[in-house]
Design goal:
The protein is α+β, with helices and mostly antiparallel strands. Helices cover about 55% and strands about 15% of the residues. It contains ten helices and four strands, in the order ααααααααααββββ. A four-stranded antiparallel beta sheet has the order 1-2-3-4, with no helix packed on it. Strand 3 and strand 4 form a beta hairpin. The longest helix has about 35 residues. It is elongated, with a radius of gyration of 30 Å.
Length: about 375
Amino acid sequence: MDNRLNLKENVKPLIEILTWFFLIASIFGVILRAVTKFTIIRVLRPDDILISIALLFSITQSVAVSIQCANGFGHIISSLSPSQISAELKAEYAANFLYILSLCFAKLAVLALIRNITPLRIHRLLLYGLGVIIIAWAATAEFVTAFQCRLPRPWDYINNACFDRTAWWTYFEVFNLITDMALILLPFLIVWTVQTPLKKKASVLSFFSLRVMPMAATICKIVFWTRLQQAHDLDPTFDLWPVSICTQCIQCLEIIAASCLYLRPLLDSLDSGFMRGDDLRRRGESTAGTYGSGSQSRVIKLSSQRHSSDPTGRIEKQSRNKHTATVKANVLDPEWDAGSQHSRSQIIRETRTWTVESTNATESVQTPIGDSDI
């Protein structure tokens, strides 16, 4: 086999270069995301685990594509031996499973992030619903891919009876496109109702809009699958190379689009009552007056005690200066008004009471200073 690049007979070098380029870009995106997030938030959350799993499947999928190339993918089928064709088909079979899983976990990572920044029950129900749809879509795709051809050789779509693979993968990518569109529209629905400056809304939504990149790659893949469906003399080891490159591009851009949501400008925009309030609630550092705390009322009581001495400097008796502060934070119901989600909408009432006890040589006088309401 000639390994030199020839767009008419051998595109193996091009497939290998682009596969590893997209994989390195994905790894760099996840590393940058992790460094940025843990520099600011320093909390491990479900979305971190999900994006890491997505990257792991992406790595193994890229390895499977490399095994395909090592066994003749990118060459015309007439130049390959039967053992090479069999090994190439098995590697493609495994790569398809891993591709589906990588997309699924990358999308779930975005849903987990959005859940962290919205306290409203209606929004979370929408997120859970979309999550169930994505999981069902991925599970169905795995099942169909597993039995795409007659057993006991389901990977051999060249010499075996199979369903229409091009129609199936076109359907799969169309649904992939729909879920990506939903992952753009849901943040728009959530962020647009927040009472915050338009510039800050635009900053947040611009990061979620980066998902149009994998959508563009998905459209290209659908176009290629449609053309292949119309082809009469399809070479399965050579003619599928544009589809394979689009697959690698989609997988990479899905992970990068999810990773960009933790870049510093977005975190700064989310810091006004979204991310930081939720972070403190989860870490137990604050339970009152926090956006999205989920409770109806919180009461915090603070007290301090200090020793006092008489004017001469001699300690006659250990009297105590008691300072009791009661802070009441009334957190409105999460369903109150979807148009008033800003943290400044919370009402905090603080009542302070001081009681000073003074002692002289002859008598003890207790003087109430008074109460103040803020």
